[in-house]
Amino acid sequence: MSIYNDYVQEVVERKGEGLNPKPIDGAELLSEVIAQIKDLNNENRVESLKLFIYNTLSGTTSAAGVKAKFLKEIILGQETVAEITPTYAFELLSHMKGGPSIEVLLDLALGNDAAIAKQAAEVLKTQVFLYDADTERLREAFNSGNAIAKEILESYAQAEFFTKLPELPEEIKVVTYIAGEGDISTDLLSPGNQAHSRSDRELHGKCMITPEAQQEIKALQVQYPDASVMLIAEKGTMGVGSSRMSGVNNVALWTGKQASPYIPFVNIAPIVGGTNGISPIFLTTVDVTGGIGIDLQNWKKKVDENGQVVRNENNEPVLEEVYSVATGTVLTINTKTEKLYNGDQELIDISKALTPQKREFIRAGGSYAIVFGKKIQTFAAGVLGISIPTVFAPAKEISIENQGLTAVEKIFNKNAVGSTPGKVLHAGSDVRVKVNIVGSQDTTGLMTAQELEAMAAKVISPTVDGAYQSGCHTASVWDKKAQANIPKLMKFMNDFGLITARDPKGEYHAMTDVIHKVLNDITIDEWAIIIGGDSHTRMSKGVAFGADSGTVALALATGEASMPIPESVKVTFKGSMKQHMDFRDVVHATQSQMLQQFGGENVFQGRIIEVHIGTLLADQAFTFTDWTAEMKAKASICISQDETLIQSLEIAKSRIQIMINKGMENKNHVLQGLIDKANKRIEEIRTGEKPALSPDANAKYYAEVVIDLDIIDEPMIADPDVNNVDVSKRYTHDAIRELSYYGGDKKVDLGFVGSCMVHKDDLKIVSQMLKNVEKQLGVVKFNAPLVVAAPTYNIIDELKAEGDWEYLQKYSGFEFSDALPKSTARTEYENIMYLERPGCNLCMGNQEKAAKGDTVMATSTRLFQGRVVEDRDGKKGESLLASTPVVVLSAILGRIPNVEEYKAAVEGINLTKFAPISTK
Which residues are in the Aconitase B swivel domain (predicted)? Predict the structure, then answer.
């Protein structure tokens, strides 16, 4: 059978599933399609024309190369297709977004046919996805006196690719759709268990919210054809939890508009709202697609006649509705007054959603076009020898005299690109910054690859110090979906210039280490900026931002990111940890005490948490920074002492060397370069030339939080509170409860020690607790299954060397085998300990899950509905989050322990400890 016939068979299968033909991205298939177009008598010719015109992916896909070449032949008269005139061929090229289409357009514009050259130039003037090879051709042609090249460069310098776009409409009508009450996780919009389908946009769109919700959205669109549907998180924040481009893509697919008639299932301009705004990462992704994210503030805290907040019997603030956004409410966004209206009634100022920069993103159909547009304008002005004309909104630069810098302000100033020379910038300033480290993970990586193809990028930016493609999110089960997707992803990323977890050539053993742990190791400078395709890209060295797959692609392609300098909240500690407490309890207590100190207001949300962690090594400190994603912070920064930072860098060096020893180094010697940079940084600290990063004494913070360690006397548990009568209070990370709350009798169905929240000491705690139980009872018996997944192979190797792994093996009923990885996900668990392969495991929820309706006690970060465990009829699944000793003891007992049982179980065990920096 021909590849086209195979494709037709797939089309039939997809039709049965209610899906359109899958977009074509391969050269071989499109070549056969073109052959059928050329054959005027071919029975498939009409369908082939449709596929060629409307169903071929653009950018740098191999299909795009074939399409661009054929269009060039039509324009030059070498081929004739009645349905595709040369003028229409130029139109099709104009929608192909870079890569081979730009090469063709340059060939035509710089060719000998004056009429064709003129047409090609007019199309080129609208294009922004040009790379070095393209711009060099223009430069050389200009220097050779080519008039067309000069005309194109003059247009670029004036940014006509932007100025000739339609202006924003003064009014944008929206009709509301409440997607849920409380925080809306991106899991609702793009479930983790459907990660395998994210690169198939139409198929993945079927998993957004529920089929019923999709039909309700469609009904609103029919009822209000002149309005966009605005998806809303009522009494909550929209898009918390994960950095999901797929979540925004799904929202755009159902509520946005098609970016181009010739590119299938790529939609833009979604409009979303939340009572408490939009999660920072999600909002960045909305910007990528030229959408609008609105902080609705439609509920507020009720106050009494004295101005005091009214509280209910649980001491929680009582909320009252300011205005209704009930499903079906028609509202108007006025881009001129920057207000939201219901008819003539002004509801709220939305200027933060319509800043000059965001307006540009909306007008251009997304932030990429602006980023690349500014780059091409700068290039053109340089070649022409003129000053850059002021076209785009100037970056806001805030500089406050006699005010010091927070840690994040120092990092942004050091890495700033294109800001006013010598000007010190404070929070609120818009800054382009150099990105040092980039991470792509394996369930969003396929989309990152698509984004790179769409923006016509072929090789990693030489300014990036290091980049890594993980394999951790698909580590648990090497099923057919993983076998189909992951090797293809690894080859693409390896070719692009990343260090990859799996070797496409099979020359080194797969490393399924959790991405955040690897990025934490390859970050060798606390002044670094890190961008990673996961919300838990939260390093304990440098400042790291979880990002959508598109922002990751942009960082890989350009080595830059753009964002305002965030405000910071300073977190310090006083007192001392009690002997029976674990550092995870301090992490939870930080969130709990912060909420208490600020009357329920989460001052961390959307800001940097600058945590003065002092003497805690990077591995252990990561437990804090990792949790800051659940605190809804934009990012976090650890302020370490000199010697602690040196020790952390030495550990990082040794782990990078292991990667080299495994054969993971690439032709650019990235890993060795990181070791060299680490050595340089260590020398700077030791000599006093450049001590460890610290803020200025007169830095200004949004708030300062002091955590009292003395009052932390019981293990702290983050509870999803699944039965709270207020739906908006469920599945947040704010219900932090002490162990005694549960009375020692709440049943636990499964325990999970794993995810990025644990480090080597956690695995040692498991081993030590098993020794204790054996000593006390003579035998270790589990009354609930215990799943243990080390974050990295390095940890397993170190545990083997130190004698702990043999105890874990002794009491396990299952141990992973890299030679025989699981091909299907486990659906039933025995009351034994499972030693699983390094990776995300249950935390990700896309492969392994607990049984429906289970109560799970986990070290994970994820308590969202359906993530670790799904509901069953009559019983909600719940994932409670706690320290390693609490999880282990809960699995042994089959219930949550009481305080006395807990203290007895951890006696003599070296829990993860922390002491504040002494100020004496």
Answer: 178-405
DSSP single-letter state for residue 889 = H
C-alpha–C-alpha distance, residues 226 and 247, integer Å = 24
Question: Given the DSSP bridges, would you call strands 466-469 and 499-500 parallel, antiparallel or unpaired?
Answer: parallel
At 483, phi and psi to the nearest 5?
-65, -30
Q: Would you give the DSSP letter of residue 242? A: S
The confidence score (pLDDT) of residue 226 equals 96
54 pLDDT tier (thresholds 50, 70, 90): very high
By the 8 A CB rule, do 478 and 501 touch?
A: no
> In terms of Cα–Cα distance, which of 909, 784, 764, 901 is closest to 834?
784
**DSSP letter, residue 302:** -
Q: Is 210 helix (H, G, I), strand (E, B) or coil?
A: coil
pLDDT at site 1: 52
The residues that bridge with 574 in the sheet, in sequence order, are 708
Task: Identify the helix (H) or strand (E) that includes residue 132.
Answer: helix 132-143
Beta strands in 775-917 (DSSP E): 786-789, 812-815, 833-836, 855-858, 878-881
The predicted-structure confidence for 704-761, as pLDDT tens digits, reads as follows 999 999 999 999 999 999 999 888 889 999 999 999 999 999 999 999 999 889 999 9
C-alpha distances out from residue 589 to 332, 419, 627, 705, 744, Å: 42, 39, 12, 12, 20
Please say whether the dihedral angle defined by the alpha carbons of residues 645, 649, 650 and 655, taken in this order, is positive or negative: positive
Burial code (b: 16+ CB inside 10 Å, e: under 16) for 31-64 equals: bbbbebbeeeeeebeebbbebbbbbbbbbbbbbb
Long-range own/partner contacts, residues 796-800 (CB < 8 A, 24 or more apart): 796/838, 798/760, 799/760, 799/763, 799/764, 799/767
Partnered with residue 546 across adjacent β-strands are: 532
C-alpha angle 276/277/282, rounded to 5°?
Answer: 130
Reduced 3-state DSSP string for 364-428: HCCHHHHHHHHHHHHHHHHHHCCCCCCCCCCCCCCCCCCCECCHHHHHHHHHEECCCCCCCCCCC
414-444: per-residue pLDDT in tens?
999 988 899 999 999 999 899 999 999 998 8
- CA separation for the pair 7, 498 (Å, rounded): 32
Residue 518 tokens read as 């690897």
Find the angle CA(912)-CA(914)-CA(916) to the nearest 5 degrees: 175
Calculate what percentage of the chain has a pLDDT beyond 90. 81
